């Protein structure tokens, strides 16, 4: 599998970059995901639904079984999972309904599908296109709209029509008819469009999200939806999204809930990140995180992602800026940290950032590629500032472990060599997966651990197998950041509940 294919395979539909940069009952919509095997023909594979895991206590087992049977009355729509990187399912738009496959994305808030008036983008010709003239329930809007995602952008205009999810029909729903889908990302995507499940605060054009209308129109009894992703390719049902409830078949134990701290994305507070049981220190005083079903990987600040990738032997691209900072300023950083200088002031004091604060010139990794070539000098200065701030985090962590200064500088140089590639992915040796450390995230006072087989994406078997680190870097500046994006890799390990009514997110071990 070539690098280009890897980049496309690990599609990140996450988080609109302009913003960065209950018991089941009637009215429940259940969407079971079914696995799409990685065969050469891309054929669909329907598998037997996973059975309920009962209790040894007959009364408890009977009650739980009744609960599970009650959920069976919900509407079922088959969704597909393409190589654990794209989870998507079918919806209908219009009367009679026109069928589309969409990503159910908690990292955005708009619904869009390709338009029949998309003439100049090749991606539109590879997917189903909405034909307004063929829908009796279509209503014209025409307001222009554009959305930029982590790996691509779309533009078009708003229209209004009914949207069917299973047997539930949402009436008078605003959505975007995409008339432009530039680039290869959307062209090779297995889905037609995206259905955002984020909050209205990040909805482009102030359009009311589909989920809001499902609740407002009384189509679900409980304002809750939940995800289960099966991460075992080719083994049974691919996963499930339930609108209006929680499926007890798909988690063990109890959910740990944390409040939504900022509406827009499903954002919450996260604590320390541990590598092999040892604290990285970076989030010990708290970091922000979002649960994002539309992101394939797990994204975090460069300083920590690089440490993780170093520990698992992921090969990235050597950063000359990073090595230059360590060579020229490493000792000065150590001296200032030992003198108890506030870490956030060090990079400005050595002249690499322009002012004191959590970040200086640095705005983190830019979310949008600069159009002006004349900004290259500014980008270099920003890169040096970023490299300095990252080095300070690493050095501070190593000094806290009582390492000698020489060993600290040697280790930081090694980390520089593990900085992620420009496309964000880093390859690893498949033969070393079993010896890699666990990575744990502290949420609500509980440690949620990912084992190597959970955070490494593998394609193929034997000598032809290729493995990719599930961790990729993105530096999001304050006030939004530092921000972690817990995508499908994390949600595959932990059943996730999005409680809209109580504004909280819950995690439990996936079953």
UniProtKB/TrEMBL annotation:
Function recorded in the entry: Involved in the breakdown of propeptides of storage proteins in protein-storage vacuoles.
GO biological process: proteolysis
Keyword Signal among record annotations: yes
Record's protein name: Aspartic proteinase oryzasin-1
Gene Ontology CC terms: vacuole
Active site (catalytic residues): 105, 292
Domain spans labelled Peptidase A1: 87-508
UniProt keyword Amino-acid biosynthesis present: no
Disulfide bonds: 118-124
Cross-referenced InterPro entries: Aspartic_peptidase_A1, Aspartic_peptidase_AS, PEPTIDASE_A1, Peptidase_aspartic_dom_sf, Phytepsin, SapB_1, SapB_2, Saposin-like
Compartments where found: Vacuole
